[in-house]
């Protein structure tokens, strides 16, 4: 096969069903969460588990990622999906993001792998009413369709912050990421908004890779650390959290990544920062 190497790679990927970085697309106007820092009256919110999955928007014809890429799925997976839009996460289980990402990225979907995937939905985009009303309509919709892989995300209510913190502890102890708080009286909105809050034992943020620090000792010949820059212009080295596979094939310069941290120093640097994953889905 001769010619442009990128075209060759895409052709081989199509033939072999392997995963490649997705081409550029237009980001979708979805609701994005702010961070909960003790400011919320928890009684005003419906609360669900924060899922470590792949955000997926059903537009009535196709599943799309947060960045607008079409997700290649087996026809049976979406054959009975409704015409109305849905917003949710493709999910396998706690701690299984890497395996899920590999399944979602395949150019030719693998039926046996997709049988492990569920689409857990938490919103009816553009629908009228409050979030409480939309959550009820979503439960009724998924119950009516009765598809094992299409489920409404369970929503809880808590009368106190103490009860909320106990639930967070339970979720984290079980291997979960945290909780999502959605104002029960909120109309449907898009963009980053405090009608949706994320509550985690760790904070997370995004940064762009601007350089690679060579490894030493046992990491000689591999990546030692990533030099990254946040949207606010803060630069720092990120070496914790990288697997050997990440060190052998590090995220290229220009890649947007997600990292986790405990708190910010007085100079705005993340304390105990740890690499999480590329932010490309």
Automatic annotation (TrEMBL):
Keyword DNA repair applies:
yes
- Residue ranges of the DNA ligase OB-like domain? 214-279
Pfam annotation, one family: DNA_ligase_OB_2
Cleaved signal peptide residues = 1-24
Ordered alphabetically, the record's keywords are:
DNA damage, DNA repair, DNA replication, Ligase, Signal
One GO MF term attached to the UniProt entry: ligase activity
Kindly give the CDD domains that the UniProt entry links to this protein. Answer: Adenylation_kDNA_ligase_like, OBF_kDNA_ligase_like
Q: This protein is called what?
A: DNA ligase
Organism of this sequence = Candidatus Accumulibacter contiguus
């Amino acid at each position: 096969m001769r010619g442009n190497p990128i075209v060759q790679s895409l052709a081989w990927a199509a033939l072999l069903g392997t995963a490649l970085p997705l081409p550029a697309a237009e980001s979708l106007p979805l609701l994005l969460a702010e961070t909960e820092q003790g400011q919320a009256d928890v009684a005003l919110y419906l609360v669900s588990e924060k899922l470590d999955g792949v955000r997926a928007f059903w537009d009535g014809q196709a599943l799309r990622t947060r960045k607008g890429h079409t997700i290649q799925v087996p026809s049976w997976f979406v054959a009975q999906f409704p015409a109305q839009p849905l917003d949710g996460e493709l999910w396998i289980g706690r701690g299984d993001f890497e395996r899920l990402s590999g399944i979602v990225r395949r150019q030719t979907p693998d039926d046996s792998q997709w049988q492990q995937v569920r689409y857990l939905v938490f919103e009816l985009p553009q629908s009228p009413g409050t979030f409480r009303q939309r959550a009820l309509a979503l439960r009724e919709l998924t119950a009516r369709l009765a598809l094992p892989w299409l489920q409404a995300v369970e929503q809880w209510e808590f009368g106190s912050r103490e009860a909320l913190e106990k639930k967070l502890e339970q979720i984290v102890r079980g291997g979960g990421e945290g909780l999502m708080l959605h104002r029960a009286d909120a109309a449907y909105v898009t963009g980053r908004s405090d009608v949706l809050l994320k509550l985690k034992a760790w904070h997370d943020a995004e940064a762009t890779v601007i350089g690679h620090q060579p490894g030493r000792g046992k990491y000689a010949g591999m990546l030692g650390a990533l030099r990254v820059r946040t949207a606010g212009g803060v630069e720092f080295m990120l070496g914790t959290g990288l697997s050997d596979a990440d060190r052998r094939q590090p995220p290229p310069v220009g890649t947007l990544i997600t990292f986790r941290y405990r708190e910010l120093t007085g100079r705005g640097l993340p304390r105990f920062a740890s690499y999480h994953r590329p932010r490309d889905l």
